[in-house]
User: What shape does this take?
Amino acid sequence: MDKPNKTANSTVEISHPKRQIFDNRLGQSRLSYLMYQLFDITKKKREFLIIILFLLIISAIITPYPMLARWFGFMLASYSAIANDSIQTIGTFIASNTNKKWWYLWLFIGLIFVGTVTYSWVVYGGDVSYQRLTEKGFSEAPTNFKFLQLFAPIVLLILTHLRIPVSTSFLLLNVFATEPIAIYHVLQKSFYGYIIAFCVAIIFWYAFSKIVGNYFKAKPWKGWIVFQWIVSGLLWSVWIMQDASNIAVFLPRKLNVWELLLFIGFIFFGIGVLFYLRGDKMQKLVNEKSGITDVRAAMLVNLVYMLILFYFKNVNNIPMSTTWVFIGLLGGREIAISFARKNLSKRKKMLQQSIKFIKRDVNHAFIGLLISITLAFLVNSVIRQMILDFLKKFFN
Assistant: This one.
C-alpha cells in the first residue's frame, strides 16, 4: 500500500516543477511580446512622444502661474479640440475636395471662423461661446489651475493621434465644472442628441436611397460643389456656436479686444496647419465611411448634421457633445444604406460591417466619457464628492 502512494507522490513532485517551468516560460513569452510591442510603438512614435513629454513638462512648470496656465491651456485645447472634431466638421469637406489647394480651403473655413466668433463677441458683450459658458456650473472662469486641467487637452492630443474620436465637450468641460448638475445636463443633452441623430439618419437615408439613390451613381453636376461649400461653411459656423465653449473654458468669460485677437489669431493659424496636414490623423475615419468622398454624399451629411446641431443650439444654452451627435448620424446612415441594398447577401454583409463601425464609434465615445469623468473626479472636489455619494448609495 505504501509503494503506490509513494509513486503517486513522486509523480506530483516531478510534474509540478515541469508545469511551473512551462507557466514561467509562457509568462516570460507574453512579457517579452508586450515589451517588444511597447518598444516598437516607442520607436515609431518617438517624435510624438517627445512632444507630449515636452508639453507635460511645460504644464507642470507653469501650473502655479494662472495667466500663463490659462493661455497655454487654451492653446492646447484649441488645436486638440478642432483636430479631434475635424472628422465631424471639415472632414467630409476635405475628403471631397482633395483636388483643391489646401490654402483655398483654409481661407474659406478660417474666415468663417473669424466672422462667427466676432459676431458672438459683439452681440454677447465679449463672450465668444454663444452663451454656452453662462450656464450654471460653467459660468465661473478659473482663477487658478491644477495640473490635470492642463493635462486634459494633452490627453485629447494623444487620443487624436491614435485616431480615437471622443467628446471634446466631456473631456475639456468636465474638469472645470463647479456643479455636479452641469455634467449631468451635458450628458443628458448629448445622449438625446445621439438618439435623435441616429433615428433621423435612418429615416432620411433609407428614403433617400430608395428614391434617388441611383442618381448618385452618375457623375456629379458641377453645381453640387457650390452647394457643398455653402453647407460646409454653415455647418462649421454652427459647430463653432456649439463647441467654442470647449476652447474658451480656460479663458475669462468676457474677452477684451487684445484677448479676442489672440483667441482668433491662434486658432486661425491652427486651422491652417490642420488643412496643410489634410485633416491629420482623424481623416482616415471619414474616408472609410460609405461613399463619403462623393461631393453629393458629403453635402447631405453636412446638411443633416448642421440642421440637427442648429436645432439643439436653439433648445437651450447647455453645452453638448457634438461628437455623440455625429457618430449617431453616421451610424444611422450606415444602417439605412445597408437596409436599402437589394441584394440580400450584400445587405447582410454591409449590415455586419455597419454594426462593427457603430460599436467601435460608441466604444470610443465611452472611452472619452470615462477619461473625462476620471479627470473630473481627480481635479474637482465637488464632482469627487458627488461620485462618492452616488457609490455609497449604490452599494448600500
About this structure: Residues 6-15 have pLDDT under 50 and may be disordered. DSSP finds 15 helices and no strands in the chain.
